[in-house]
């Protein structure tokens, strides 16, 4: 009997058709003793799902020197996931609890938690190909009084959106609007971590910019442009 196992591990930010599904992939926690949240994982497959977790600390998020460091030393664990391993029967749902141990933060901490299937037994008399897809959750541990502070800064003939706060915010959409009410969507979006910026190119000098921001809540802000 010939067996071939192929593990294809893809870390993605949104749920997709695969051998498991997550009810959320972005979590917000505070630096308080009771800070915790749950991720519910479902196994829709007709085979048993063997699952394990990995925790990565994200250093310098959103910057050129960003690094994702896997946390393996128990003394360095500031984010706990329980259970760390699980076996899900076909159709079963399992709750994974994430708990933050960071306290009195001046700036948010960013983590990525990978939920990774591992190969179980394949019973077949033929060549077997098994594809495993891992999902990764983005976890923000934020100061209890954390705030983002987005400003529009002119830079020569261009502009940039700067976050001078101590937590991140996602720029969902940017539109350039004229005084007559007409607006044009600009091709810019992304996550603004603390101390980072998004560049805006070819922005007219009149009217204003309307920016849709999304974090724990969403809001639209307007920035007048110099005529």
Automatic annotation (TrEMBL):
Residues 1-18 form the signal peptide. This is Molecular chaperone. The keyword Signal applies. Residues 34-144 form the Pili assembly chaperone N-terminal domain. Keywords: Signal. The keyword Signal applies. SUPFAM superfamilies: PapD-like. Gene3D superfamilies: Immunoglobulins. InterPro entries: Ig-like_fold, PapD-like_sf, Pili_assmbl_chaperone_N.
């Amino acid at each position: 009997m010939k067996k071939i196992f192929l593990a294809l591990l893809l870390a993605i930010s949104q749920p997709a058709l695969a051998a498991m599904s997550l009810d959320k992939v972005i979590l917000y926690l505070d630096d308080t003793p009771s800070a915790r949240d749950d991720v519910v994982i479902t196994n829709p497959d007709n085979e048993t799902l063997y699952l394990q977790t990995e925790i990565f600390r994200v250093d310098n998020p959103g910057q050129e020197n960003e690094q994702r460091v896997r946390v393996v030393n128990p003394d360095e664990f500031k984010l706990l996931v329980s259970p760390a391993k699980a076996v899900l029967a076909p159709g079963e749902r399992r709750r994974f609890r994430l708990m933050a141990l960071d306290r009195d933060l001046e700036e948010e901490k960013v983590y990525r938690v990978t939920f990774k299937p591992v190969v179980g037994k394949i019973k077949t008399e033929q060549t077997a190909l098994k594809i495993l897809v891992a999902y990764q959750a983005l976890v923000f541990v934020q100061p209890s009084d954390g705030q983002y502070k987005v400003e529009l800064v002119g830079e020569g003939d261009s502009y940039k959106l700067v976050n001078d706060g101590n937590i991140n915010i996602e720029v969902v959409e940017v539109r350039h609007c004229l005084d007559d009410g007409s607006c044009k969507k600009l091709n810019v979006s992304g996550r603004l971590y603390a101390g980072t910026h998004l560049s805006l190119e070819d922005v007219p000098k009149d009217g204003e910019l309307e920016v849709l921001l999304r974090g724990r809540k969403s809001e639209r802000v307007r920035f007048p442009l110099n005529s």
